[in-house]
Hints:
The protein contains five helices and two strands. By secondary structure, the protein is an all-alpha fold. The protein is globular and about 45 Å long.
Amino acid sequence: xxxFLTIISCLAFFNMNSQNEPISAFLEKWNNSKAYLIxxxxxxxxxxxxxxxxxxxxxxxQQLLHIKExxxxxxxxxxxxxxYQNSKDINVYTKAExxxxxxxxxxxxxxxxxxxxxxxxxKKVDFFAGPKTKLQILNLLQDHVTHHRGQIIVYxxxxxxxxxxxxGW
Length: 169
């Protein structure tokens, strides 16, 4: 029994310690963010993907595509050696296509970030708002998703669609 408790204590320590690592903590939250945004995208009826509350706002579909494009830009520009190409895509996509594109972008971000080291996160990079660390870029990735997800939750409510239950940490 004594050995069993020692093993459990060690496992708990290593698990708690891994949660304090910025990359593993980000990836855990990122996967929850992905699940929550995709649930929101699924909740909106396809015919309401063209809905926008006011003339100056993006449609529901445009919001989702904007989130996707930002994820692609930040992860490619700051967590890979690839050169980012802005898609300038004006195609109209179905609900299913947009959801699939979001899932791919979330997965690509996770893959690129998982290859970074803890040391990489302290590196300064050029950013349009001034020099930032890669850790700040990670925070921006999540913050941007959260910002626009909050907006589209309002869209759901305006269309009398109950938003999915929040998925936090």
